[in-house]
Amino acid sequence: MDPVVVLMLCLSSLLLFSLWKQSYGKGKLLPGPTPLPIIGNILQLDVKDINNSIHSVSKPACGVHGPVFTLYIGMKPTVVLHGYDAIKEALVDLEEEFSARSHFPIIERANKQFGVAFSNGKTWKEMWRFCLMTLWNFGMGKRSIEERIQEEAHCLMEELRKTKASPCDPTFILTCAPCNVICSIIFQKCFDYTDQNFLNLMEKLNENLSILSSPWMQVCNAFLMLIDYVPGSHEKFLNNDAYIKSYILEKVKEYQESLDINDPWDICFLIKMEQGKHNQQSEFITENLLATIADLFGAGTETTSTALRYGLLLLLKHPEVTAKVQEEVDHVVGQHRSPCMQDRGSMPYKNAIVHEIQRYIDLIPQNTPRAMTCDIKFRNYLIPKGTTILTSLSSVLHDSKEFPNPEIFDPGRFLDESGNFKKSDYFLAFSAKSLLCLSGEGLARMELFLFLTTVLQKFTLKPLDDPKHIDITPVANGFVSMPPSYPLLHSCL
């Protein structure tokens, strides 16, 4: 038979199978826009802005199917949860059923099911328990970690002073600060901002976050074969990841050569590795150590530094907000001591700004992908075990009923009529309940509050251009919403 005919028959069979599979699945899964064979709904999604695409798809879907619907990312069905009620019902009321980690192809290639951020089963349980215990023992939520952040804030101010009021790109300075906090927890030491190896690590972390948020990576997540057979930025991601793990391994070997039972990090992991070296079922192995530390760096460094960069950009854009909060900082903290977390109760406007920054920038629009731990009937439809779940945090943070004019940056929405801080159940910048960011909601908020307050205490921010001309549109809006590069000009107070 003619090879061309054989090829056409194979393609036709594949198309028919795809149509049958999708049609069969639609009888079980929640309805959604009609997918095309093989490529699914990918043409209905703008890979440059998946977040906005899902909002667009949800508008007709909410009228016909409700705020929960199915999209086909390639041939894989993905259930989208849109709006506060749907997300709360799934992630809070049915937390266990919606708690598995979904496939994230490029991370799976890098971590090989090790680590904590995207692992499942026994590995996830052991590493998650270890991370919570270790971070808490090292001061999570305690004064010791606050003191470490204060010390790093002082280093950050010294680096900003070195610019001598000249315009500078704050990207690496604002990345080094939260990364050093993580280093102080993991390695019990901090690094100089001029340490070239440390700067190289910052560069790799920053570049990988950009790659994860790129349009190409959104396509790769839909069509897995691209990662293995087509050249692209995913190769750079994997090379960077190998560099990061090599850096971590070098530091781990330094500890192993002088193993000290009195060192808390050694006790937490390296001693467990030694104790379990004859147990083939032990999760305390080198691969898990490297992947878990890399996950901690990614979660505890880049997300916080991105929020800091975006926060300063918004303050440059809105000088009236900056002036008002600096008055509060001067009144409560003054110039002769470091800001502390105890100040937050006396600084409602600053607390409101931190919340509004996180709400406005919508840092992780779709959250990290989840998966079902079992078959479940949800809103009269069956969602099979293993189905990928996408939770649109953006649909909650930008809910126009809870936050009128959500496209406007307005810290006042988190204040009541008396000027006191006002909480909102819709503030899901860190997802819901136990499904929090890996570095800890408390740590991230503590860093944002203390770093931003210290900058405002010591410096006056000066936009180089008319504030109304400052562009705050994210340059990438895939996995993370990333701010554009901008020059930071300041003068000492």
UniProtKB/TrEMBL annotation:
* Leader peptide range in chain numbering: 1-25
Q: List residues binding heme.
A: C437
Could you tell me which Pfam families the record lists for this protein? p450
How does the entry describe its membrane topology? Answer: Peripheral membrane protein
Q: What class of enzyme is it?
A: oxidoreductase
The reply on keyword Mitochondrion is: no
One GO cellular component from the entry? endoplasmic reticulum membrane
The protein's Enzyme Commission number: 1.14.14.1
Question: What domain of life?
Answer: Eukaryota
Its subcellular locations are: Endoplasmic reticulum membrane; Microsome membrane
Q: Give the required cofactors.
A: heme
| Gene Ontology molecular function, alphabetical | heme binding; iron ion binding; oxidoreductase activity, acting on paired donors, with incorporation or reduction of molecular oxygen, reduced flavin or flavoprotein as one donor, and incorporation of one atom of oxygen
Question: What coarse category fits the chief subcellular location reported for this protein?
Answer: endoplasmic reticulum
Q: Name one GO biological process term.
A: organic acid metabolic process
Q: Does the keyword Transcription regulation apply?
A: no
Family listed? Belongs to the cytochrome P450 family.
Q: Which protein, by its recorded name, is this? A: unspecific monooxygenase
**Annotated organism of origin:** Loxodonta africana (African elephant)
